[in-house]
């Protein structure tokens, strides 16, 4: 399912980051509760390229949706095209999906953003504030000039005292700073992080010993590099009874599509989560960057575009 929206407002946050405020074409509000904090959407731009962007507006405000786009120097046209949009242009959005979600049972929440990783965490901060929850938002960036939403977070949100800035932290000093964020946390606390992969890995290393690995929630937008040498064929069976052989060099997704089975998909790199389906029998070999550590350990879901099987047979349920 997708919807066409209009760009109602553009804000140049930094020389390389702009925010796009999106509204419905008919002028009405979006359906209340259309997305939960931490959700992202597939955005189809003018070039037809599809990219994933987090929704960073308050989830309780259905009047518009907000995304932030960083222009990547090695972009294949996706982010560059969105930086050429003007007010009034149209975009196509998918239905919002949540791979990063708030834990309602946490006694304290620490949000740790690296650079453009602030986007999903901003919507989560809005939601936590609306709950009256205990939380902190820590924003790491190279400099104040390279950080998005500075004016918003300092002057236009109701929780500026919950925002902590970390500009220009040297790589050698980062582990100690991150460990310091765990001082007020217990095993009942939760940590949420988004940013460059090495940054998120350091957040996990510093804070997982305090809250437990399953209480560290990570948002990835880059594929996992996997050594496919030694892959073996296996059988995948649908809950309808249809069965297919998956060769060593093919994905479950491609085999299903070849046989006329429709599967919702987008990135095909194990990032967006659109092809995640249920696992009824067998053990998946997770190779995605969308499911959480807890989801992977449970073995009840898998990303069909990249993940394989550790057993000779998988029985799956398409969502």
From TrEMBL:
Named cofactor requirement(s): FAD
Looking at the record, the residues that make up the 2Fe-2S ferredoxin-type domain are 232-319
Limits of the FAD-binding FR-type domain: 1-103
Name one molecular function that GO assigns to this entry: metal ion binding
Gene3D superfamilies in alphabetical order: 3.10.20.30, Nucleotide-binding domain of ferredoxin-NADP reductase (FNR) module, Translation factors
- InterPro entries, per database record: 2Fe-2S_ferredoxin-like_sf (IPR036010), 2Fe-2S_ferredoxin-type (IPR001041), 2Fe2S_fd_BS (IPR006058), Beta-grasp_dom_sf (IPR012675), FAD-bd_FR_type (IPR017927), FNR_nucleotide-bd (IPR039261), MRET (IPR050415), Riboflavin_synthase-like_b-brl (IPR017938)
Keyword terms, alphabetized: 2Fe-2S, Flavoprotein, Iron, Iron-sulfur, Metal-binding, Methyltransferase, Oxidoreductase, Transferase
Q: Name one GO biological process term.
A: methylation
Question: Domain of life here?
Answer: Bacteria
Q: PANTHER family annotated for this entry?
A: CARNITINE MONOOXYGENASE REDUCTASE SUBUNIT (PTHR47354:SF1), NADH OXIDOREDUCTASE HCR (PTHR47354)
The protein in question is named Vanillate O-demethylase ferredoxin subunit
Protein source organism: Geodermatophilus sabuli
Taxonomic lineage:
Bacteria, Bacillati, Actinomycetota, Actinomycetes, Geodermatophilales
